[in-house]
Amino acid sequence: MGVFASLAREHRLFSSVGLQCEFSLDREERIARRKVAEAMRVLLPALERHEEVESLLFGDADYAEREARRVLALVAAQHGEIEALRAEIEALLPNAEHCDFGRLKSGVLRLVQGLKFHFETEENLLWPFYNSLGSRSIRRSLAHEVGEKIDQMEKGMKKSWAAIADYLEKEP
Length: 172
Ligand SMILES: [Fe+2]
Ligand SMILES: [Fe+2]
Fold this sequence. Notes:
elongated; 172 residues; Four Helix Bundle (Hemerythrin (Met), subunit A); 5 helices; mainly alpha; binds fe (ii) ion
C-alpha cells in the first residue's frame, strides 16, 4: 500500500469520527458529553501519532521550490494548532461529565473544523509537491516505513473505534 493511500484512508477515518462528534454535540448535553469524550479518547492519541509521522515524512524531503516550502511551513503551523487544540481537549477529558460544556463543545468543534481544513491543505497543496519531487529529494525507505506505521495505527484505531461505534450510534 502506497504511503498516500494510507494517509488518505486515515484522513477519512479521522473525518468520520469528527462527523460523528458533530452529530453527538447536537444531542442532549449529558449524552453529548459522554459520546464526545469516548470519541476523543480514540481520536486524540491516534491523531498525535499520525501528525508525528507526517511531520517526519514531509519534513525530511528536500523541496527546491519556494512555494513548496511555503506550503510545508503552513502545514507545520497547522500541526502546531491541532496539537494545541488536542492538549486543550485532553485536559477536559478526565472530568468530561462535569467540565465546562461550552469549552468542551467549542474545543471539539474547532478541532473538527481545523482538521477538515488541514486535510484539504495537505491533500490538495502539499502532497502534489511531495509527489513531484525527484528520487534524490525523498528517502524512499522512510516513505515505506511511514506507510507501514500508518497502517498499524489505523488498525489499532479501527479496533478501538469498532469497540465504541455501536455505543456511539445506538445508545441514547
Ligand atoms: Fe497533518
Ligand atoms: Fe494528514
